[in-house]
Amino acid sequence: MKTLLHLCCANCGIFPLSVLQQQGHQVTGFFYNHNIHPYQEYMRRRDTVKEWSGRIDLPVLMRDEYALEEFLAAVAQRPEDRCAYCYRSRMAATAERAAAEGFKAFTTSLLYSRYQQHEAIRAYGEELAQTHGLTFLYEDHRVGWQEGIRISKEMGLYRQQYCGCIYSEKERYTPRPKK
Q1: b vs e for 80-107, b when ≥16 Cβ sit within 10 Å of the residue's Cβ?
Q2: Domain extents for the chain?
Q3: Alpha helices for 27-141 (secondary structure H)
Q4: Which of 11, 22, 142, 155 is most buried when burial is the number of CB atoms within 10 A of its CB?
């Protein structure tokens, strides 16, 4: 099946891509992560996807947009709900691109992360699939967490230390009060 795989980053794409290919899918990557902060981090992740995909001969479609202001306007009033916005905006763009380019299915590398809300991703993916006449491929790729880390380290890929948005950066780097 011709499948579009949303890539949040190269590292998170490694394991889902291998599973999809083993299942016989014809996979194309799609990089769209307009919320990553700061811009230098956005560029590192984008460039790492380009490097990785070139090394493994994975075709990747790029929607190269950095839209910090749009992200902040959407989540500033309720930052605790920011993940829902991130899932929805990136997955909607993926489904729209998949439908426009003749793909039969789509999925996301967000399903690899132990830190993401799988049920929310799955529900929204299925909703988008129905809207666009596609199949959303849900699979819990967290089982490959260590394998993906091992392979990305072996490949010498840049490995980010937080999810991507300004709020996750703050959570990662701001000292927490001692209990």
Answers
A1: eebbbbbbbbbbbbbbbbbbeeebbbbb
A2: 2-173
A3: 39-56, 68-75, 82-100, 118-132
A4: 11
Q: Model-level pTM?
A: 0.94
- pLDDT value of position 172: 85
Phi-psi region of 170 (alpha: psi -120 to 50; beta: other; left: phi over 0): alpha
Cα end-to-end distance, the chain, whole Å: 51
Distance in angstroms (rounded) separating the CA atoms of residues 111 and 91: 12
Q: How is domain 2-173 classified at the architecture level of CATH?
A: 3-Layer(aba) Sandwich (3.40)
Which two three-digit tokens encode residue 149?
A: 């880390």
For residues 40 and 43, give the distance between their C-alpha atoms in angstroms, rounded to a whole number. 5
Name the phi and psi angles at 145, rounded to 5.
Answer: -50, -55
Asked if residues 37 and 169 have their Cβ atoms less than 8 Å apart, the reply is yes
What pLDDT digit, counting tens, does each position of 37-79 carry? 999 999 999 999 999 999 999 999 999 999 989 999 999 999 8
d(CA 143, CA 178): 32
Closest by CA position to 108, among listed 15, 174, 1: 15
Place of tokens 């490097």: 51
